[in-house]
Write a structure and sequence with these properties.
By secondary structure, the protein is of the alpha/beta class. The protein has a single domain (4-289), classed as LmbE-like (Rossmann fold), CATH 3.40.50.10320. It has helices at residues 22-36, 61-64, 66-80, 117-123, 145-160, 178-182, 203-215, 227-230, 245-253, 256-259, 265-278; strands spanning 4-5, 12-17, 40-49, 83-90, 134-138, 167-170, 233-240, 282-289. Strands 1-7-8-6-5-2-3-4 form an 8-stranded mixed β-sheet, with helices on both faces. The two termini are 14 Å apart.
Length: 290
């Protein structure tokens, strides 16, 4: 692995976001920096619809209130200057059999177990006219079933178009937890000492992420991947957000209905500032050597 600084990107950047907040939570600073430099950034969120609220248990309604979530996402994307696309796939939590508790972080034994992988891959075809110069995809850190399925669909779609060399991978928000990092075949290469963990600055967030780490189930994520990615050597580049961290945090604040699930905005902000500082006031982007 060789670390190097990322140069400014040009052309069109397409960011595949599993849910309506993931892109901004993960690489909102880079998006803000790129759009400030004149780069076109399009955030395509995959799972953006669900059943009527009255069909759900009250505890799940805050996650399925898509009128509120879309409005929050519109505001957040405006802060970082990104265009919005939505693929209107149904989150796994809201497809029968319904998931409960921490089962969102269990993945199937093989690719055939991802029930809507083909449908999500087909939905991405609506983005092909963008002909993106860069495609940013989550690494699936944390084993959230939607994140992993979105990663597989996006890489399958890019490979079908001959764009696999345009793909870069960003770290999911769950990468703030050192346990998550060490369990992922890519980020395990670059994990911080426990005493430098960003979650030490946000105890409630740390407890939540540790609970998720203990609950996650499924085979190693690399077993699902295209062979070219599974066997590649991986390197990272750092994308400077020195002048744009405040815009990322302002955008995250827009997701008021969701940040409470991670212990509140204040803890998220403290953890992210620590995470950015560890990378040199930057965000990492990973690239396989294909």
């Amino acid at each position: 692995m060789q670390a190097r600084y990322a140069r400014g990107v040009q052309g069109t950047v397409l960011v595949i976001s599993p849910h309506l907040d993931d892109a901004v939570l993960s690489i909102g600073g880079s998006i803000a920096a790129w759009t400030s430099a004149g780069t076109r950034v399009v955030i395509a969120s995959v799972y953006t619809t669900g059943p009527a609220l009255e069909e759900l248990a009250p505890a799940m309604r805050k996650f399925a209130d898509y009128a509120t979530r879309r409005a929050e996402d519109d505001a957040a994307c405006a802060v970082v200057g990104a265009e919005v696309r939505r693929l209107d796939q149904v989150e796994r939590a809201f497809r029968p059999p319904f998931l409960t508790g921490w089962s969102f972080f269990s993945t199937p034994d093989d690719r055939a177990g991802f029930g809507t992988l083909d449908r999500v891959t087909a939905a991405l075809e609506a983005l092909a006219p963008l002909s993106p110069d860069h495609v940013l995809v989550p690494l699936g850190i944390g084993n959230h079933i939607d994140h992993v399925e979105a990663m597989l669909a996006a890489t399958d779609w890019a490979e079908a178009h001959g764009w696999l060399d345009r793909v870069r991978f960003y770290e999911d928000f769950y990468a703030l937890a050192g346990t998550m990092r060490r369990k992922h075949f890519v980020t395990a290469q670059h994990a911080w000492p426990r005493w430098q963990s960003p979650t030490l600055r946000a105890r409630r967030l740390g407890v939540i992420l540790r609970t998720i780490a203990l609950a996650r189930r499924g085979p190693p994520i690399e077993t699902y991947l295209h062979p070219a990615l599974r066997h590649a050597r991986w390197a990272f580049a750092t994308s400077s957000i020195h002048d744009h961290e405040h815009r990322k945090l302002a955008a995250i604040r827009c997701y008021a209905s969701q940040t409470r699930a991670f212990g509140g905005f204040a803890g998220i902000a403290r953890a992210l500032r620590t995470y950015h500082a560890w990378w040199g006031r930057a965000e990492p982007l990973w690239r396989p050597d294909l």
